[in-house]
Amino acid sequence: MESSRHIEEITQGLSFCNIENDEETIISIRLKLLDIHFNWSLHQTRLDGATSEKIVSEFNRKLKEMLELDDSKFTFKSFCCQLTMAQELIKYDTAGALTKVLECEPWVLSLGTGTCSERAFVSIREAIEYIYYGCKAFALFKCGSTAEAKQVLLQIPDLEYMEEKQKSGIYGVKACAFMEYGLEGFLKGLEYISIARTKYPTMAEWHFLTGKLMSRIRHVKYPFATTISDEEENFYRTAYNLDKHEPSYALYVAQITREKAYGLYQECRYNREAYKNSLEFLNKMNEEASSLYMMLIQSNQNDSYVLGRCAFGMAKLPGQHKRLDLAAEAIDQALKVSPENPLVNHYAGLIYHRFLKDNVKGWQYLERAANKNNYPALLDWLRLKYMVDPENYDPIPELTKALEFNETVPFTLTEIGSWYFFSKDDVVRAWDHLKKVTDDHRLLNHKSHFLIMKSKCNLLEVIFDEVKLKLAECKYKDTQEKEELMSIRSQLQTLCPQSHPTDYNNLKSIILMDSNCLMSEQGYDRMKAGTRNTQASSKESWHSRSRNIKSLAQSGSSFSMGGKAADSWRNTNPKQHQIYPGDRAESSNYSRDIKNSNIDLKQGSSKGITGSWRSSTGNIKSLARKGSSTSMGGSTADSWRKNNPKYYLGNRTESSNFSRDIKNSKTDEKNSFTSRISEPHSTEKVSTEIASSFVSYQKPKLFYNPKSNIHVKPLYFPKSGSNNNL
Asked: Which residues fall in a compositionally biased region of kind Polar residues (predicted)?
């Protein structure tokens, strides 16, 4: 009796147990322990606040381009992209996530049957199967198919007993996934691919991915560096040496070699001795790049991606190494293979427009690519429209329509804001768009598509500078606009903590005049009214107080020096060759480019200054003590001192402002007098150029002549800093 009562109690207790729930819990726990996409917390490294829907949209575009370029062939890149997209889809569309996972199965099975064209990945088949079946089980479980998920779990290889080279595959796939998530993802990916490379050192793909990650980090983290580390180059070369049959490896070796040659050229182009010593090496590097491009073109006549990349790379080679005939043939062949491919059409548009100077064909191909939702092609097409008719073209309607593409919203908002700022001189409307994307790195490395800019700028710093100028010189319509400008200044001071709260350097007018000079040089001999107005007023507006010069000197700016050749000046004035912006650990030293040239003056003509007006600080001091009267744009120095007392500190023992000997003239040199500036290397420095005013710099002596009327052609010349190694 007692016994039967006990059994009844146990039975009643068991009736409350749900065996199915226990099984689901066990499966759920096991799934969470798998080293697969759904457990890698990829989204946490995406710091721009992008939603899963937006990221999925980006992946769909990339996958479409991959399949078009590879003739609908599924590859290792497709496998990684599909599974990374699936882990974003699972958050709001479980059925869609499962579909993306299942689309990978034919490629995974081909690794076991020997039908996979990518033979290198057969060696890590167990790792691929581990990741695929783990993702499949996870997606099935989330869709409610518990029984099927349980069966799939039985197919997963045991990670504990895998060989090291198999385990490398898991780290390699993980690195590929993190590569899609911005700078933080690049850094995590570099960490994982390094582990994969250590576990399987003869896997060419791991060396190749290491090089790609280092390149991406360099482009984002050090956008103004022109040099490339040997370490980065060696990873590409190692991949190529391990597998010379993979065209992508040879393509990237050609590209990195061409870029390194260009960086070296930029380093030594204004030092005759250094350039002479480097010339042979430069030629060898460019010859190697050219040979690789030609080899790839000959052996990949049916690969539109390789043909397009090689054509564009060959067109960018310098001098005698540039083969525009072969570039044109290659891009035409790529168009025959993939006539509707947006990427190929984009390359074709750039080659015909930039290098072959055929704007009709350039327009045609860029328009075709833009209409196929290739966003970079859209921007290049809009830029071509603007260059053809800069007075009347307004890109705002088309840019506003482009906001419909979620994945490119930050790009578009930046371009709209840039247009209002540079072309419409409307700071308030520009900021209304830019304040939505202040955390986007493109603002710090901005290169407008509607101005010809040889280098990027920190757009936040430039706008901050303009706001300070407008407030200081009362350039606002009414009290409301003044209050709006003050509000913008307050916000930008937070975003640009290293900038002075009131000093300004008129950066905007410098950029506009630079762009106008470059447009004239390239045959676009038009200047917008806004640019002309800025040029006319810049002499008075950029420098209203003497402390602006001090801030320029501290920020590392380079100034014109009396027409002396750069190489001679560097040799005789080594202390002035590098300008040290304070004692910051991160600061970089930039070189100045100075060419003997024609100086165009508006008033009169007489003998120009050739040679150095001051060879040492002692000469300047002697001039100051004697109180020399020197001609200055039609006004003597004595008169100028009386009329401009705030620029002359005559009573100081170590006076920092001195008179310049400037006569209205033209020099009889061959080249135009050119003043170049170094672009800011980080948000902590803003280097500027005095374009329409003439400023001379002698450390620590400073000089400004407000009445000179010298017009120069400023060009940006960013000298790479030391931050080119990871």
From this structure: 587-620, 627-638
How far from 541 is each of 27, 418, 463, 503, CA to CA, in Å? 71, 21, 15, 12
Q: In the predicted model, what is the mean pLDDT of the chain?
A: 75
The DSSP bridge partners found for residue 595 are 674
Average pLDDT, integer, range 449-470 = 89
C-beta separation of 613 from 660 below 8 A: yes
Tokens of 645: 């007392």
**Residue 564 pLDDT more than 60?**
no
Strands 671-672 and 597-598, bridge-based pairing = parallel
d(CA 479, CA 493): 21
Phi-psi region of 662 (alpha: psi -120 to 50; beta: other; left: phi over 0): beta
Strand 635-636 and strand 631-632: the pairing is antiparallel
- The DSSP element (H or E) to which 696 belongs, if any, is strand 694-698
Measured distance CA(249)–CA(209) in Å, rounded: 10
* Centroid of chain to Cα 112: 41
Token pair 């504990």: residue: 160
Tell me, what's the pLDDT at 406?
65
Cβ-contact 135, 173 below 8 angstroms: no
Burial class (CB in 10 A: 0-12, 13-18, 19+), 263: middle
Q: Is the pTM of this model over 0.85?
A: no
Give me the helices (H) in 269-408, please.
272-299, 304-315, 324-337, 342-350, 359-370, 375-388, 396-402
Instruction: Place 443 in a pLDDT band, splitting at 50, 70 and 90.
Output: confident
What is the rounded distance in angstroms from the CA atom of residue 293 to the CA atom of residue 312? 10
The encoded tokens of residue 26 equal 């066990």
